[in-house]
Amino acid sequence: MIHIVFNESEVExxxxxxxLDETLAGDVIQIRDDFAVGPLAGIDxxxxxxxxxxxxxTLLQGSPHGDSHVGSFDDRETVKQIKAKLDENPIEELWxxxxxxxxxxxxxxxxxxxxxxxxGRVMILYLNNLPFINEKGHIFxxxxxxxxxxxxxxxAKKLARPVTLSEFEIDPDEWRKIxxxxxxxxxxxxxxxxxxxxxxxxxxxxxxxxxxxxxKATRVLTNTLHRMKIKTGDVFIMWRMKSLINEGKIExxxxxxxxxxxxxxxxxxxxxxxxxxxxxxxxx
Length: 284
Description:
Blueprint: E1 2-5, H1 8-20, E2 27-30, H2 46-60, H3 75-88, E3 94-98, H4 102-111, E4 122-126, E5 132-133, E6 139-140, H5 153-156, E7 161-162, H6 165-181, E8 185-188, E9 194-197, H7 203-208, E10 215-216, H8 217-227, H9 234-246, E11 251-254, E12 263-266, H10 270-283
Parallel strand pairs: 1-2, 1-3, 3-4
Antiparallel strand pairs: 4-7, 5-6, 8-9, 10-12, 11-12
Helix pairs in contact: 8-9
């Protein structure tokens, strides 16, 4: 059994689940790119893939992750390794785990064209609109696998089902459609329906957390990530914050071109700042 997850925290989570239920024993593999943001045009070509890497390098400048993070992994090679394991063992199954969020669903769409030949051996566990019990004993509806207690996964495994032949025909077409649209931001509108949005989609969420007082940019980043309802990663949000600085919608002290921790931000003073914020609210 091979388990695929789409977030780093879920690797350890699934390993904990396996310790609780040995019937799920197997390798846990992460698809690491976030296909919910960034360019996808021509991604099945070397030029398209390189364009995406270059885009990520631009966003990662000054980040604590370092721009060297780009190229340190290749999800295409990960897929090749998974295929090799499936070819070596004809009874091996691939289990894809995803929560109800655009990050996981986009990862699923990217995988579908690549595993069509293994139809019948690819299982899907899409935990959408399903109730779980949290640590306080309350029922809730998680959006991310990491929100679910390990012991709850022993129940969730019963929901595993093979990806159907119809899905292997339709979902690769959906992936191609999304890639050709090439929106910068993609969100989940329910089920597996993905909608493309402009690159400024999250700007209002950032501006909500910028005050008239100077704050560390990293504090605004943390508050935005914590409070926003439709989640995305810290690298994308910081890129948009810098874009808002360049547009004059956020005032900065320090050098925004250096490390994230090296500059502070606040609302622009005076009437101009009020107008900029009002416009952004109206656009939202």
